[in-house]
Amino acid sequence: MEFTRREFLKVSGATGLGIAFGRFLSPVKVYAQELRIKGAKETPTICPYCGGGCGILVHTVGDKIVYTEGDSNHPINVGRLCTKGACVYQIVDNDKRLTKVLYRAPGSTEWAEKDWNWALKEIAKRIKSTRDANFKATEDGVTVNRTEAIASLGGAALDNEEDYLLSKMSRALGIVYLEHQARI
Amino acid sequence: MAEKACLVDVTKCIACRGCQIACKSWNQLPAEKTTFDGTYENPPDLSASTVTKIKFREVAEGGKVKWLFRKVQCFHCTDAGCVKACPVPGALTKLEDGTVYLDQNKCTGCKYCIMNCPFEIPRWDATKGKAFKCNFCYDRTSNGLPPACQKICVGGAIQYGDRDTLIAYAKTRPGFLYGEKELGGLHWMYLLPVDDPELYFLPKEPKLPKSLIVWKDILKPIGLILGGGSILAWLGYHFLLMPQKEKLTKEAEKHS
Amino acid sequence: MAERMIQRTSVGQRLIHWIHGISFVILGLTGLALFHKSLFGLTAIFGGVDSARYLHRVFAWIFTFNMPLFIAVWFKDCGIIDALDRKWIACGMGGYLPIKSLYAGCPPAGKFNAGQKMFYWTAVLGGILFVVSGFIIMNPLGLAKQTVRAAYILHDLATICTVTFFFAHLYLGTLGAPGSLRAIFQGNVNEEWAKHHHGRWQIG
Amino acid sequence: MAGLGPSFGRGAMTNHWIDYRNADVILVLGSNTCENHPVSTTWIDEAMEKGGKLIVVDPRFTRTASKANIYAPLRPGTDIAFLGGLINYVLQNKLYHEEYLMNYSNVSFLVKPEYSFKDGIFSGYDKEKRKYDMATWGYQMSPPGPDGKTTPLQDKTLKDPNCVYQILKKHYARYTPDMVSKVCGMPKESFLEIAKVYATTGKPGKAGTVLYAMGITQHSNGSQNVRAISELQILLGNMGIAGGGVNAQRGEANVQGSTDYALLFHLVPGYMASPDKVLHPILSDYLTKETPKSGYWVNKPKFFVSLLKAWWGENATKENNFCYDYLPKKSANYSWIALFEAMYAGKIKGLSCWGENPAVSGPNSNLEVKALGNLDWLVVSDLFETETASFWKRPGVNPAEIKTEVFLLPACGSYEKEGSITNSGRWAQWRWKACPAVGESKSDLEMMNELFEEIRALYKKDAKAVFPEPIVKLNWDYGKGEPNQDKIVKEINGYTIADGKPVANFTKLADDGSTMCGNWIYSGIYPEDGKNLLKRRIREKEGIGLNSEWAFAWPVNRRIIYNRCSANPAGQPYNKDKWLVRWNDTEKKWETRDVPDFGWKDAKTGEMIPPEKSAANPYIMQPEGKARLFTPVGMADGPMAEHYEPYESPVKNLLSGTQNDPAVKIWAADLDKLAPVASPEYPIIATTYRVVEHYQTGTLTRNLPWLAELMPNLFVEMSVELAQAKGIKNGDKVKVVSIRGEVEAIACVTPRLKAYQLNGKTVEVVGLPWHWGWATAAPGDVTNKITPHIGDANTMIPEYKAFLVDIKKEVA
Prior knowledge:
Radius of gyration of chain D: 26 Å
Helix content of chain D: 10-25%
CATH topology of the largest domain in chain A: Phosphorylase Kinase, domain 1
Number of strands of chain D: 30
Shape of chain A: elongated
Distance between the termini of chain A: 89 Å
Largest sheet of chain A: 3 strands, antiparallel
Distance between the termini of chain D: 45 Å
Strand content of chain A: 25-35%
Radius of gyration of chain A: 32 Å
Order of helices and strands of chain A: HHEEEHEEHEEHE
Number of domains of chain D: 4
Shape of chain D: globular
Largest sheet of chain D: 6 strands, mixed
Number of helices of chain A: 5
CATH architecture of the largest domain in chain D: 3-Layer(aba) Sandwich
Oligomer: heterotetramer
CATH topology of the largest domain in chain D: Dimethylsulfoxide Reductase, domain 2
């Protein structure tokens, strides 16, 4: 009889305790869930946005990016990030990214897809022709070796090594209109 | 195991909303289409894809201006309205570390939790046909990592750790602790500079809806008793009372 | 002499009764599964909670559209409770509560006794309550929280009343009164049964 | 950074982010640091936890202000009035750091009697040329000593009227608290409260730091704003100490690096002037004119020759002046505004934009975007399609009429390639490649390498090419496609040519052509083959946050520059626990936490140099070895900061009869219009700024859904009163109109902005972020259509922060 009575109570669910405290369930044990970045490779990088220099870890599985998060080992941001730093994942995982060289012909209303080889050759031709057509060797008897017909803007977003090569290339070409974000 | 919690010092929050993005980034939640309608605050409300956000309030008094920010997400209450309301075993559970975990695999989309949370936190995910809310980054915390929003907070406004330690720490700080007692104790607590929770969009004495208690703790048990009882009653009637009823009515017929 | 059979229910009454009955049972089972965690096992019948709720919504529509017909087609027989019915109730539910002193001078039941009329009204009022609160519960998002929370309680109240009473209806329609089941299946009963159970029923 | 160089000898942030936690008082001026440099919040918070005070002075009540202990509003363009007020307050109440001042600054130096300042104009002003002749600002020099050297005369009693102290005192006497309140529209009590609190950092052992950004520099007297900060910080002895400094918070991830590597018309890598036609016709002119008699810059020839060797290798010989003539010589101002004026006039045929989006970021955008149409060809390298790349299909133009050819090259992102960047605290950190480049995008490094190879090939083939030598003979051999990183880093570090061994640092460079070095200030990053210090990731266990083994801070990994001043002349630290260098008198040696910024050890003998010697020369880059309260040279518009009104201002200048900075170049193309003073048509002051959710022109943020969700549209912040007056409700569409153009934005009506009371006149202020443009998934109008084409006298940085507009309610 005992068993059926408890069975009965269980079936009806109206245990006296249940009514009084209303808390039917006691807390459930905690089990470690699988981390979605388990086994991902972590590559340190520095945030591309402001001048803070905060450390970020990029998690990748094979070639695919899965997650980015603050680098806890980095002394400047101690693993923390701001609004933009938190979002660097979407710079790569983004269907708006340019994936092809694009060319716009004079007067055209559309972009045309081109390949790198063609583009770099055409750009080189234009640089040479514009430089040579507007090159000034001397001014008031002084050697100046410059062209004022080509300007180069950028890049506070480039790496140091890129800035160095750009500085070197521009000066070798005789460019004086050399400016970038530090000026505005 | 010791209960975990987060303590938010609202005076340190700069509303940069790194937490909103860290949450979406870790939990892979989509962005919403929003427009700027006169306030920095966006998106305007929680949703199934925005399970944490910062609420803004500009206060101008006596020539001085204050700009108040308060992070909202599931409070992971001890007496959780959603856990009590949820009819599906295991869909909304109170875990030992204090997390109130909504398991979307089990959720059937009845919306009871949405209707019964005193803080109006769980929201409807129309695409999945299920409810969703902040799960305290349970996959992270169960592996010893802090929640994504806590880790990223650049102002140091959010601390994560043992609930008791955080309460003891909060008591040493200026300001008022919100969440120690409310609803049996919240696992997201707030250090407010003034004893005015409403100023920070926090209900003064949050309570579970009376209807929920009536519904779940009074009506349903009674229902079960009546339901179960009436089956047994009629079985008992059949053997004990039906013969007498037949005897009584048959006699009456003979006389008439 | 072969027993004379008497027509008790029309085809329409029976059809509408069964539409209402079957949907009520299915709605009951799928609904009770969510009534309390202890009953959640009922969802297994329907292959899980999601299909149980899907069925609940399907039969909710059937139940809702059938409701007006049910009210109309049974009103004449069970809708009107007259003085004699009340007297019948007073004497221990026509003897169902077998207390000799009460039962004395108890008028015989009409075509449908007061108990059945009470069950009719419970089913009707409960049904309407089910439909109104049910549709609120199904689409709560735009509504005021208080309204939805009230709907939850009302839906359960309707459940408790109708389901509890339903067990009576089930018992009294089968074991409680042999020979009754035909009334809702074939539609006729034998004369003897009619006289015994429904003395006041002017047959024909 | 043209205010920092003349003041201290180097033009960079003097301390670093983590160091903010060592400050007793933090003054945030001309910066919304919590929004635009959010990591500072972490360290400001730590400073405040230890009882530090945060003061924020900003025209708007920003999210940074919400954290401040003291906030005060300041009319845009009046920073010097406010700072002059602080300087005056410190001088009048003698709250300066006496010992620091007497030993480490030029406070006691005597200025030539010919120097004068009348009604806003310093002596030596040429009205037509709008330029100063700085001769009269020089120090009085002693007759040449036995070694032929002359030294500046001093009056240690500070009584001589020509001594810097007296000049300073007289100059800033006009900046009374009342004047500050009238000019800046700041309540007097707020000013006095701030002055009192900030002046406490003048006490020895106390540290006060000033955080600034574009809010200081983007004015017609931006460089002098920086000078004013520097003068204040020298008076209070806050330079060269932990928790102190003048912290220029750079806006972009590697704007420090791009400035260090001289992507600026007036420099070559290492902050050396680019050759000038008039000043440096030949190499010897350059070396003599550009090399001062004393101060560390005496080594400039070593750095310059090593650079030429790095660029033209063995072709650069003593005989051909190390190919000096291959460098183009400037004979004009080719800065940003000048560049677009020239392009607008059709003089520029080709433009390349490397991760730059001028169509949105440049001032007076109507002119600049029109100028793009005059180009024959345009090359843009970026991650997304930018407004600059698609200027030919911007709203309101017919593409058929625009003849410019455009090449849009897909660039890969920061962690799709490898390389280093330098943050605002001069830390050069390495970045590793985490995943392959998206689509067919390439790193800019690879683009440049392949492009240059193509150009060189054309020049080698074409016999009739014009002056091919600098190209053909360029030392450019980085392999095919993606260049070898180590090779470039080694070239930058410099090495001895004979054995190709990297130099330990720039002290090893020579001017005889035996060494080559791409950028002397980075020398030391690659001291041995295969040892790239930029990749170091060793975090300090304890200490005050210097992290000397994390990456590399130029110069020579010094984390806090001018750190000799953290100790008194006898070498004892002013602050016991936050010491940087310390003279151990018993063992007669220096104990150092940071790389000393002074002669502390004899290079040859290894002998320790006693503190008295370096106490006389703590600012090693300055010829006189001292911090300059008064700058005899280096500043085009005056030896001391003086308040002038922005070029578009609602009021007359109360501090002098000179309305605007007299040394600023004024451009006169048809679209270079400027509203007159107190213009009735444009009565409202406008300022532009950034929000934490977006970055610069928005190319890298408006395309990111999670960020576009937070801040989807362009808005204009205005006061409640202004909105009422114009019948504008919060969220309405409005037009912000200046004499140059108009911008459509959504009204953000807020009490965080209030009208300014300027000497009896009420003037409203509105503010707009400038991140939007017609491209990307979250487009908007281009704010810079309404900003002026007027720049600072020294840097030519445009005056984005203060100009005049009117607001109109959108009727449609």
